[in-house]
Design goal:
By secondary structure, the chain is of the alpha/beta class. The protein contains 13 helices and eight strands. The strands form two sheets. It has a six-stranded parallel sheet. A two-stranded antiparallel sheet has the order 6-7. It is globular. The structure holds nicotinamide-adenine-dinucleotide.
Length: about 350
């Protein structure tokens, strides 16, 4: 039996602008980061939303948003009492908006606003998930809030917003998409619906990620990658994730390794571990056939090798570090933090749906 919630209305391309143009006479709070407010990207929204709307900006979102940032957003939420909240940016800004909405609902500070998510990276899928990842800097860990209240009402997908994403962020976020699709495919909550989304996501990613990396202005590739990202988000919102994410959250919370990069570094190790279960290995192999990385008659292990080879090839083409040590992290400090990271990874919400249990 599957439990699939489809709530978010997706507005893509030209429709996206038309939808935003139709918003009139509302109190709106936009949540973004300083980079997007200072480089003018947020004028995409403020220019469109000029018809009688009262627009306020909270631009204090930071990569791996903290409890403190969400707290200062809550104060603004209480002052503005917005009818609409718009999360504008990468996963960090959208998750900040989600954190602010979540805690203002818990504290009953305001009436529930309409929540619109406008992604400017193609990675997290946060525009269609009920998750928000908030960092606790004191405990050096990331925490997952999961609630239907923060599943966006509308996702505005305009790929032109992603044209300016730099190469390293394109690489990291692109590998985040691949991790979402692969983890969702083998997660304990996977079902026919999430499988279809994950398969399509990988199919689109294979056609577009390197194109986006090589030429950031390739709008067709950026469009496909944005679709791949949202599809993978729908897949994991339904199926759950696994140990790849539960460990990546600790690497991000402890050493500020960008989320997609942490996922990418772990991915082949997690696949290898998951394949200690023959059933999971067969599932990866079936996926490899579906996305034309392997032939149906191939042995499962060879089909899985094709997936792992693809991951290595993508990372090398995009000049990504392949281990934590390549990032210049001090080995002694890493070893000192290891026990805390392992303890937190085992308590991370994503661990609940990991397919191959730790013996
Ligand atoms: P990010 O939001 O941290 O952004 C990375 C950098 O790219 C930032 O400096 C940002 O200013 C910049 N940027 C964003 N859009 C840009 C653009 N169009 N042009 C140029 N620069 C741009 O990165 P992310 O990978 O999108 O999000 C990561 C966060 O999302 C992490 O905190 C992670 O834990 C979380 N996450 C959430 C979910 C979810 O379902 N809620 C899923 C996966 C990850």
């Amino acid at each position: 039996m599957s439990n699939v919630t489809m709530k978010t209305r997706i507005q893509e391309g030209k429709q996206a602008r038309e939808y935003l143009k139709g918003i009139k006479n509302k109190r709106i709070l936009i949540v973004c980061d300083k980079f997007l407010s200072e480089n003018g990207a947020v004028t995409y929204l403020t220019d469109i939303l000029c018809s009688g709307n009262a627009v306020e900006l909270f631009d204090k979102a930071i990569p791996d948003p903290t409890i403190q940032v969400v707290g200062s957003g809550l104060c603004m939420m209480y002052q503005v009492k917005p009818e609409i909240v718009i999360g504008f940016g990468g996963g960090s800004a959208i998750d900040t908006a989600k954190g602010i909405i979540y805690f203002s609902m818990v504290k009953e500070l305001v009436k529930k606003p309409l929540f619109i998510a406008v992604p400017t990276t193609s990675g997290t899928g946060s525009e269609v998930t009920q998750a928000s990842v908030i960092t606790d800097p004191d405990n050096k860990s990331k925490h997952l809030i999961s609630s239907d209240e923060i599943l966006p009402d509308v996702a505005v997908l305009d790929p032109t917003l992603t044209l300016s994403v730099p190469q390293a962020v394109t690489a990291n976020t692109g590998m985040d998409v691949l991790t979402h699709a692969l983890e969702a495919y083998v997660a304990t909550g996977a079902n026919a619906f999430s499988d279809a989304m994950a398969e399509k996501s990988i199919e689109l990613l294979l056609k577009s990620l390197l194109g986006c990396y090589k030429d950031g202005n390739d709008l067709k590739a950026r469009t496909r990658m944005q679709e791949a990202s949202t599809l993978a988000g729908i897949a994991f919102n339904t199926a759950g994730l696994g140990i790849n994410h539960s460990i990546a959250h600790q690497l991000g919370g402890t050493f500020h390794i960008p989320h997609g990069l942490a996922n990418a570094i772990l991915l082949n190790h997690v696949i290898e571990y998951n394949c200690t279960s023959q059933e999971i290995m067969n599932k990866y192999a079936a996926l490899a056939v579906k996305v034309q990385l392997a032939e149906a008659k191939e042995d499962s292990r060879d089909a899985v090798k094709a997936i792992k080879g693809l991951i290595t090839a993508l990372m090398r083409c995009m000049k990504m570090p392949e281990s934590v040590m390549e990032l210049g992290i001090d080995r002694m400090e890493y070893e000192k933090q290891l026990k805390n990271m392992v303890d937190n990874a085992l308590m991370d919400a994503c661990f609940a749906t990991t397919p191959t249990k730790i013996a």
